[in-house]
Design brief:
Alpha-Beta Plaits, 3 domains, 5-stranded antiparallel β-sheet, 4-stranded antiparallel β-sheet, elongated
């Protein structure tokens, strides 16, 4: 399955429509939630092109309208500011995702596996320290590449030492090879594997990713504003990008034991909602108040 109304858009345009929730203040007291939705649907189709209104919920004198659109968030905000008042409503704000009907917020047991990695198995209570490691195959590959990287650095150091203090058992050709080729090989390994993680840890404070050839990255749940799952075609792997307010970092999902549980842990504790894409394609999750 795919998100409601998304398959047609995906086939024609190659991407799904983004989800938003718009909050209106009712100026015309004769309008209720359904009335606001009917009023919005009566707008000239050319004006509301690529906007599909999905439903509305009234809370006191405010109405939350859920919609899908290919327009940017700022475009929609500008459009609704112009259109709202003549319709008897006043635009207040626009948020990412569906704040009313998203199953992660309402009933996690009904989560659609096409847009969420797995049915949530955790609660909103603080997490115990949980470690997510990679499979034995990936662990051995990490050890192998790390060993090659260290050997290349060591060979470069020996070659440099031989150039400064010539050693009897190295010829000029060997020294040249060790001096010039080993750094290039080491840089190639570092470029390809510096984003390789060896472990991901989650606790009540946030998420921490330990990398193979770089410093670990840590981000609190409150600092996370988005997450994107994307497919790296060259590596033929799925990767996860964590987007914080001041930093972002990536790690591979392939060969990660209980990777889907980790993704749902991030989604629930960072309070992220599905916005765009399809699972195993570029799938975007955002906090409702993200920029």
């Amino acid at each position: 399955m795919v998100p409601q109304g998304a398959l047609y858009t995906y086939v024609l345009w190659g991407t799904t429509m983004r989800r938003y929730t718009v909050t209106f203040c009712v100026v015309d007291k004769s309008l209720d939630g359904k009335g606001v939705l009917r009023t919005l649907n009566s707008i000239d189709p050319e004006v509301r092109q690529s906007i599909v209104f999905k439903g509305s919920t009234q809370v006191d004198n405010r109405v939350l309208v859920e919609l899908e659109s290919r327009k940017d968030k700022s475009e929609l905000a500008t459009l609704f500011v112009k259109l709202a008042l003549p319709l008897g409503i006043q635009f207040e704000e626009i948020a990412w995702g569906w704040l009313v009907s998203d199953p992660v917020l309402r009933d996690p047991s009904t989560v659609n596996r096409a847009i969420y990695p797995a049915t949530p198995r955790i609660s909103h209570q603080p997490l115990d320290r949980q470690k997510y490691a990679y499979s034995l195959t990936m662990t051995l590959a990490n050890i192998y590449m790390c060993t090659l990287f260290l050997i290349s650095i060591a060979a470069f150091a020996v070659g440099l030492l031989d150039w400064v203090y010539p050693l009897a058992f190295f010829g000029p050709d060997t020294t040249c090879t060790m001096w010039f080729c080993c750094p290039i090989y080491a840089l190639a390994i570092f470029h390809s594997w510096h984003n390789r993680a060896r472990m991901v840890i989650c606790d009540q404070n946030g998420i921490e990713v330990h990398y193979l050839l770089r410093l670990s990255q840590k981000c609190s749940w409150d600092e996370i504003v988005g997450m994107e799952l994307y497919w790296a075609l060259i590596r033929n792997e799925q990767w996860c990008s964590i987007q914080g307010r001041s930093r972002s970092f990536d790690f591979s999902i392939n060969e990660l034991v209980n990777g889907n549980v980790l993704l749902m842990t991030i989604i629930q504790h960072a309070k992220l909602l599905y916005v765009d894409g399809m699972l195993w394609e570029n799938t975007v999750y955002k906090r409702s108040d993200a920029p």
